[in-house]
Design brief:
Blueprint (H helix, E strand, L loop, with lengths): L7 E4 L5 H12 L3 E4 L4 H13 L4 E3 L9 H13 L4 E4 L14 H36 L5 E8 H5 L5 H21 L4 E8 L16 E4 L2 E4 L4 H10 L8 H10 L12 E4 L5
Parallel strand pairs: 1-2, 1-4, 2-3, 4-5, 5-6, 6-9
Antiparallel strand pairs: 7-8
């Protein structure tokens, strides 16, 4: 029996990287999963890997920024599992530039992914969360549901070249605080995890080598210069960046029963590098 036994968890961006590690952690604690990725192959591969372990999982493929995604995502959970217990708004990417060079397209793409997408998902979830809470109350069950939004230390301190990302991630913290007040009456804990440098394909590749990922037909450069990675490790009290599994651990803290009286909070999973 895991601490999330039978819980239904929806995790965006869970075909790869941090999102995959979050889904793996939840699965190890007994959760059923709705897996999402921008691309079909990673999402379906993840679902199949979970099923081989006896985990009940389903894929909902697509761009979280699409206007209909929130409804599709939530409806996938309700159709497959008949409930929602955990939502993790994890999907994201960076598209950096200094303010004088940043285009409107860059600005809105990042805000849409990191703020508008979670908003739409939570809006779509509202009637189900309300109805599920009413059913729990009528049956005399005490059940706490969990929302975890993903922010960044860039929101807490700013980061040169990331006015769009820093602004969006700061907005996520405000969203978290507002939703904690709105949904407390439904026994929903809404919290936020702000990541520092976590080593994934989005951060670990050498940016000078021109590594890119394709998002909505755009080639977005990813990776950090090795000298920047070295500098980060030297400044971090723990002497290194984090792993996806360590990032997932921070999210899991807010999804465990021990967090039932914690809401509206933001913790940094960053090795104390602020």
């Amino acid at each position: 029996m895991g601490k999330l036994d039978g819980k239904v968890a929806l995790v965006t961006g869970s075909g790869r990287g941090i999102g995959r590690a979050i889904a793996e952690k939840f699965a190890s604690e007994g959760a059923r999963l709705v897996i999402n990725d921008l691309d079909a192959d990673p999402a379906h591969e993840m679902v199949e890997a979970l099923k081989k372990r006896g985990v009940d999982a389903v894929a909902c493929v697509g761009n979280v920024s699409a206007p209909d995604f929130g409804d599709r995502f939530v409806n996938t959970a309700m159709s497959k599992f008949g409930g929602i217990d955990i939502i993790v708004n994890n999907a994201g990417y960076t598209w950096d530039d200094v303010v004088q060079k940043m285009t409107d397209e860059q600005w809105y793409a990042i805000l849409d992914c990191h703020m508008t997408a979670p908003f739409r998902i939570l809006r779509a979830a509202y009637p189900h969360i309300k109805a599920l809470h009413a059913a729990d109350k009528e049956a005399g069950r005490e059940n706490y549901r969990k929302i975890v939004n993903i922010s960044s230390v860039s929101a807490l301190n700013g980061n040169a070249g990331q006015i769009n990302y820093s602004s969006a991630k700061a907005g996520v913290i405000g969203m978290t605080r507002a939703m904690a007040r709105e949904w407390g009456r439904f026994n929903v804990n809404v919290n936020c995890v702000a990541f520092g440098l976590i080593h994934t394909r989005m951060t670990s590749a050498d940016a000078n080598a021109g590594a890119t990922v394709q998002i909505e037909g755009r080639d977005i450069r990813v990776g950090l210069n090795p000298e920047m990675l070295k500098s980060h490790a030297q400044r971090n009290p723990l002497g290194r960046g984090g792993t996806p599994e360590e990032a997932a651990g921070g999210v899991y803290l807010f999804c465990s029963p021990e967090s039932n009286y914690i809401t509206g909070q933001t913790i940094a999973v960053a090795g104390n590098l602020q």
